[in-house]
Write a structure and sequence with these properties.
The chain is an alpha/beta fold. The protein folds into three domains: 195 residues, Rossmann fold (3-Layer(aba) Sandwich); 42 residues, no CATH class; 33 residues. 27% of the residues lie in helices and 28% in strands. It is built from six helices and 16 strands. The strands form five sheets. Strands 4-3-5-6-16-15 form a six-stranded mixed sheet, with helices on both faces. A three-stranded mixed sheet has the order 7-14-8.
Length: 281
């Protein structure tokens, strides 16, 4: 990988994992999508304007960027299994319509069926012009591979050296599943319940109420986002065309005015004028 600028911490790197903040290609891709959807241009996270009128919600987001997003926006990260809790399959109704963006990275493949409710809730959490930034493993097959379609009452136990899952269906039948797949995340191992197909993802997002879906498939070597595959790519699902609200525009202008004031004060510095004159600034 060529030298790049990490768009999460701003450090220079050459390896897939940033040595400074430990961000992965996927982490950086999520911030690439968020930057394009909110601001229409590629910015590093340190370059994001501080706009507390923009509200965001994370669902088990990586600590690599979660704390940094909280410094820029009215953003909070949530978890399924610990505080602050939020179950995307059954969120509180008073959360609906509050958020300008929701990030769901490597979450929806773990939600118990039927998964359609999670997509509907993600849309309902957003304001009318909100955006869902989404990553999840998916294939180019025709349909989603649902590993446990009749999941109802279930538990996981260790039998010998292997983990097995026992499920009692709504009809009372007992099922036993071996060869379980777990994904390692910030909350430990999470059971893979399905592998989506790209076609099914588009259908689920459209059925949930999203008006447009964009897949970000192009590499961005500038930020160290280089992939070899053309599947499991980050997506943006838009509820409506994102626009800066008046209070956000006012925040931007206030920041701009303060920056101008600082530049003018700096311009009065003797050493600043000397540096500018000899070409150092």
């Amino acid at each position: 990988m060529k030298t790049f600028t990490c768009n999460i911490c701003g450090a220079t790197g050459q390896e897939a994992t940033c040595k400074s903040c430990r961000s992965t290609v996927r982490d950086r891709a999520i911030l690439q999508v968020l930057s394009m959807e909110l601001f229409g241009t590629l910015l590093t996270l340190p370059e994001f304007p501080r706009l507390k009128s923009i509200r965001g919600l994370g669902t088990s987001d990586s600590y690599t960027y979660a704390d940094r997003l909280a410094q820029k926006f009215d953003y909070r990260n949530t978890f399924f299994d610990r505080e602050p809790r939020l179950d995307i399959a059954n969120p509180p109704e008073d959360e609906f319509g509050k958020y300008d963006f929701v990030i769901s990275s490597e979450v929806l493949e773990h939600v118990a069926p039927p998964v359609g409710a999670a997509f509907h809730n993600a849309c309902r959490l957003l304001k009318p012009a909100g955006v869902l930034v989404l990553t999840t493993p998916y294939s180019l097959e025709a349909t989603t591979a649902e590993h446990f379609p009749d999941l109802n009452e279930f538990g996981i136990a260790q039998v010998g050296e292997r983990l097995v899952m026992v499920n009692r269906t709504k009809g009372g039948a007992v099922q036993v599943f071996e060869n379980l797949i777990f994904h390692l995340g910030c909350s430990g191992g999470a059971l893979e319940v399905r592998e989506f197909s790209e076609c099914a993802l588009r259908e689920l997002l459209a059925g949930a109420g999203f008006s447009a879906v964009r897949i970000y498939g192009e590499n961005c070597a500038e930020f160290g986002i280089v992939r070899e595959e053309n599947w499991s790519l980050p997506m943006a699902a838009c509820k409506g065309a994102f626009v800066l609200r008046p209070e956000t525009t006012r925040e931007v202008m206030e920041h701009w005015a303060e920056l101008n004031r600082r530049v003018k004060r700096l311009g009065k510095s003797y050493w600043f004028r000397v540096g500018a004159k000899i070409g150092l600034i």
